[in-house]
From TrEMBL:
GO terms for cellular component: outer membrane-bounded periplasmic space. Residues 1-25 form the signal peptide. This is Tripartite ATP-independent transporter DctP family solute receptor. The keyword Oxidoreductase does not apply. Coiled coil: none annotated. Belongs to the bacterial solute-binding protein 7 family. InterPro entries: DctP_fam, TRAP_DctP, TRAP_DctP_sf. GO terms for biological process: transmembrane transport. Keywords: Receptor, Signal, Transport.
Length: 337
């Protein structure tokens, strides 16, 4: 496994089997949206090491962190067309290609790591994997679990939706997340991930939301002072492979890749549990960030944001699909439209 820091032309990888039946040594390319140090990087490096080990060095994987191979949505397109082998990207950036995945980004559906693991590792996760193959031409091999998205800003402590007045908040180009902020009374600024740090640095936007691990990895503490310990969306990053690439592999190689994806996913879950608290502490003690708890156990945030659920029933596969998700989490059905 090698970490690449320069952009180089992408090429389609060689076929996994030579005509002689012997496995040819190959190098696959993996795109990462985040910089080194976050959960995307942890998942990617773990998966790359496992694949190299399981194939006895016949397959190595070069990692291109920090969006070197294009935006996260670009990497879905490139993998679909066979121009890229692998990518780790935020779940909200695969939703435009496979809308049913949006059920995982509805506000306050996933409320912690256990919820995330329950959904991704059960029947619902398998169904979403099949949907991404059908809709986007990519297959989900594994998941990085990054944690609750925490609102940060450079201006003031924020405890209630009313405190957002006057702030410009960056959000991903994702209709569900945009609608959540609109429900809180603000019009967010949807910016590409690659533009976010610069926009915060230059004051184009006042804030953004991401898990503690991402805030630390992307050094947002350099341009943000305040954190609201919110949890409106739980951040997960699927590891995807080009379905064309996957189908070109021998059955044995497919099994090895799937095993590596599962083992990397298990590692990501444990990594989150082991590191999040210490990262939060470091952000406060070493970098001076101030953490504010949402007022009234986040109830006003929850009531307003979950009010948008009916707007997205059609795109996620119907209200019954959300009800299946909620039932899997031991919760009541969603409200009617």
């Amino acid at each position: 496994m090698r970490i690449q820091n320069l952009i180089i032309p992408m090429a389609v990888s060689a076929a996994s089997l030579a005509l002689s039946g012997h496995v040819m040594a190959e190098t696959w390319k993996m795109a990462l949206g985040d910089a080194a140090g976050g959960t995307q990087y942890e998942l990617g490096t773990t998966f790359a090491d496992l694949v190299e080990e399981k194939t006895e060095g016949e397959v190595t994987i070069d990692l291109f962190p920090n969006g070197q191979l294009g935006s996260e949505q670009d990497t879905v397109n490139n993998a679909s067309m066979g121009l890229l082998d692998l990518s780790v990207l935020a779940i909200n950036n695969i939703t435009p290609f496979s809308p049913t995945v949006g059920v995982m980004t509805l506000p306050y559906v996933i409320q912690g790591p256990e919820d995330a693991r329950t959904l991704t590792q059960g029947d619902i996760g398998e169904e979403l994997t099949q949907n991404t193959i059908r809709d986007a031409g990519v297959r989900i091999l594994g998941w990085a679990y990054s944690g609750c998205r925490r609102l940060t800003n450079s201006t003031k402590p924020v405890a209630t939706p009313a405190d957002l007045e006057g702030l410009v908040i960056r959000v991903p180009k994702n209709e569900i997340m945009i609608s959540a902020y609109q429900a809180w009374g603000v019009n967010p600024n949807p910016l590409a991930w690659s533009e976010t740090f610069t926009a915060l640095q230059q004051g184009v936007v006042d804030g953004q939301d991401n898990p503690y691990i991402t805030i630390d990895a992307m050094k947002f503490y350099e341009v943000q002072d305040y954190v609201t310990e919110s949890c409106y969306v739980f951040s997960m990053e699927p590891l995807i492979i080009s379905e064309g690439k996957f189908q070109s592999l021998s059955p044995e190689m497919q099994e090895l890749v799937l095993e590596a994806g599962q083992e990397a996913t298990d590692h990501s879950y444990e990594y989150l549990l082991e590191t999040e608290a210490s990262i939060k502490e470091r952000l406060v003690e070493e970098h001076g960030m101030e953490i504010t708890q949402p007022a009234n156990d986040e109830q006003e945030w929850i009531e307003l944001a979950t009010g948008i659920w009916p707007e997205f029933y059609d795109s996620i596969g119907g209200k019954e699909k959300l009800d299946e998700v909620l039932a899997a989490l031991g919760r009541d059905p969603a409200p009617a439209e």
